[in-house]
Write a structure and sequence with these properties.
With 440 residues, the protein is mainly beta. Helix content is 8%, strand content 36%. A hairpin with a 6-residue loop joins β11 and β12.
Length: 440
């Protein structure tokens, strides 16, 4: 009797238990709770909130595991707890933070990582009337940041100019639980405590689609777009607290495309989608397991691959961009698992014997180079994310040069510079007059 075995390069993706020498330990985590993932990562660093007054958080190099020293440098510019942070996808040395103090701040990380405490942000954004809970950068437009607040509004910011681009303040009646951008960064979707998902035209700040009662359970609904597949996944609960995810076509939301039950558990699931491998990773808050599914364009849409199982529960999880992975070791994904006081890297690999670059499992990936400026995007530019080869031989040849991030000066800074210039002019005029020289 023959049986059909689906052809897939990723059927045997696996993750071993993290080695002790790969962990980051002795982290005095903040006790603040909310809808955030509690940890974020880019190819060089990860960020976590810490205990302490004024909402400190720290930024740690991926290549420096071990115990964090009590003298670990921190970022301390907020006056209340930091609820979320987000690395700029186009500038590895830029991170934004959101706080209970109602502000969003943008910070410049020194080359090589934090060496001393940082107190002064590059940009200070004011506009929300209550605490700011979530941040998401646009995946194609340079320096465009979305923020969510418990004042029930979402705002878009141009962080380079330090200005608000637009705002949605009347679409939500209950707290916003998640916000995600679509593949090209033209639209963003939000989930809310009222169980509805709303999709907005990001440029015009208008509601284009509303999906009512996406999941019937009372707990948080999390989301991710499925890249170029033009689908969206929502993860939530049934009335009986069974965890499930649904696949949606944003162009026809009358009914989900597919519904898949996961298990019976209490923790909210954080979804992470890898566009390159078309694998969705599902990690639950409060449990130690990570499930992963491979997606295809047509029915049945999702194939379960395997589970990573651990008895150590996760407080949060972060997805490391592909540019930060061990490519020659066939590492196709890395999740950073935040526990009560450690960060454990979970490395997912495809078993291969060859030591050569495996181009069949590494298609061109997100390059970290913007497809357009904030002004071009706002004017209607519609482009997919720029990609690059992961082949070390090609990367060594050099790539597109990134424009340095230069924050616009605030009115207070400009006024201080003007006052200093006027004072200097008055001093020079006084010297000339004292010397008997005319200033006419």
């Amino acid at each position: 009797m023959s049986s059909f075995v689906r052809a897939s390069k990723f059927r045997h993706v696996y993750a071993d238990q993290p080695r002790q020498d790969s962990k980051f330990e002795n982290i005095r985590l903040s006790t603040t709770t909310g809808e955030q993932n509690y940890i974020k990562a880019n190819p060089l660093y990860f960020a976590v909130g810490l205990q302490g007054g004024g909402g400190p958080f720290t930024i740690v190099n991926h290549d420096k595991p071990g115990k964090l020293e009590p003298s670990q440098p921190i970022v301390t510019g907020h006056s209340a707890a930091v609820l979320d942070f987000e690395f700029n996808p186009f500038h590895d040395q830029i991170i934004a933070s959101a706080s209970e103090d109602q502000t969003v701040k943008v910070w410049g990380i020194p080359e090589g990582g934090l060496k001393e405490n940082m107190n002064d942000p590059l940009v200070d954004l004011h506009g929300h009337s209550r605490k700011v809970t979530l941040l998401r950068f646009n995946p194609t437009a340079n320096n465009v940041l979305a923020s969510v607040s418990s004042d029930l509004s979402t705002k878009l910011w141009d962080i380079e100019k330090g200005v608000e681009m637009n705002s949605v303040g009347d679409a939500h009646e209950q707290l916003i639980q998640d916000i995600v951008w679509d593949y090209k960064g033209n639209n963003y979707a939000t989930s809310s405590k009222d169980k509805h998902v709303r999709i907005f035209d990001a440029r015009t700040a208008t509601l284009s689609t509303k999906i009512e009662t996406v999941h019937e359970g009372a707990k948080s609904i999390k989301m991710t777009y499925l890249g170029a597949l033009d689908k969206m996944v929502t993860v939530g609960f049934t009335r009986q607290s069974q965890r499930q995810f649904k696949i949606w076509d944003p162009r026809n939301t009358a009914k989900e495309v597919k519904k898949i039950d996961i298990d019976q558990a209490a923790g909210v699931i954080m979804p992470f989608y890898d566009e390159d491998t078309q694998i969705l990773y599902l990690a639950g808050k409060g449990d130690g397991n990570v499930r992963y599914y491979e997606f295809v364009k047509d029915e049945p849409y999702a194939f379960p691959l395997a589970d990573f199982r651990s008895s150590v529960s996760a407080k949060g999880m972060a997805f490391v961009p592909k540019r930060g992975l061990d490519i020659m070791g066939c590492e196709t994904a890395r999740l950073l698992k935040l526990t009560s006081n450690t960060v454990e890297p979970l490395s997912f690999r495809v078993p291969r014997k060859s030591e050569a670059f495996q181009d069949d499992i590494y298609p061109d990936t997100f390059s970290g180079v913007p497809a357009h400026t904030a002004d071009e995007w706002m004017a209607g530019s519609d482009k997919a994310p720029k990609t690059m080869s992961l082949n070390p031989a090609n990367r060594a040849a050099g790539g597109e040069v990134k424009k340095a991030f230069v924050a616009a000066k605030s009115p207070a800074v400009l006024q201080a510079e003007l006052d200093a210039a006027n004072a200097r002019i008055a001093e020079l005029v006084a010297r000339l007059e004292a010397a008997g020289l005319s200033t006419d």
